[in-house]
Amino acid sequence: MDIDTDRLNQFIGRMLGDLGGAVSVPLVRIGDTLGLYKALHAGGPMTPGELAGRTRVHERYLREWLSHNAAAGYLDYDPRSGRFTLTPEQAMVFVVEDSPVNLMGAFDLMAAMQKNQGRVEEAFRTGGGVPWGDLQCMFCATARFFRPGYQNNLVQQWLPALDGVQARLEQGATVADVGCGCGWSTVIMAKAFPKSRFVGYDYHEPSIEDARAHAREHGVEANTRFEVGIAKEIPDDGFDLVTFFDCLHDMGDPAGAAAHVRRMLKPDGTWMIVEPIAGDRLEDNLNPVGRLYYGASTMVCLPTSLSQEVGAALGAQAGEARLREVIAAGGFRQVRRAAETPFNMVLEARP
Questions:
Q1: Per the confidence metrics, is the pTM higher than 0.85?
Q2: Do the domain assignments include residue 99?
Q3: Residues 6+ apart with CB under 8 A from 305
């Protein structure tokens, strides 16, 4: 076997980067849980001893933790003063909760996927699925991961991109947020449009309990309610707008869900479908975002879909063409891409 040494060394270099990222996951989460990044953000450059005094965390552990973060490029280090600094750019990722690039939820997701390896590994052997509720630590991590994107795009860009929807919401519309999870998308819309009424549905009861708590915390109980319900069995109708945030591809029978949305909507209603960004061909998705989404799809989305009836298993990288087929199968004649980000596409569907 002929070995190209340069290619081998490049590949090993990539592996070292990947392994360094993997070992960073628990260390970043420790820094988040113990408030270490927040302390550096608030207090400025610190030595390990100074950070220990501020956080009451053992200095020797902090020295190693800080050194790893500096080696990873997550903190800056000044050898003259021996101090470590969290730059404003690094704070956008680790500390600022409403930052569009806050990625702490992504680190939580990586840890949750590791915990669920055994369950998914068995599904590989059987071809079966793993119900969403059986995936440990997943629903909270997912909610935290998606919240910054919703916070920075939903009201500012996505809803205004839909034809006539924002005006309806301002005047007072009825909205169903299907697959709402822990309710952040519902709460964000309810705060922005107090004259409209919002109902969040999800088949995972612990998520609905969290959603109700979030509604109380953010003062939107007056125009929101949350119900446990399966997408194809929601009894309510007469909605001006139905929203699906990052959930259609997880459903066992997405075409059946699409048909039910058609029944839920008023004749002139709108269905907004937010899905992970993806091209229609594998070669279009061989990039850093596709890499993350294919991994999440393997560990979360496919097992969830395959645990349900039909088990369509669209996957997180289904692509717009496949999504349009599913939407059209539900009786929608008009579908367009209304908006997009580096991580999401927003489709608008009308009967």
A1: yes
A2: no
A3: 129, 249, 250, 251, 252, 311, 312, 313, 314
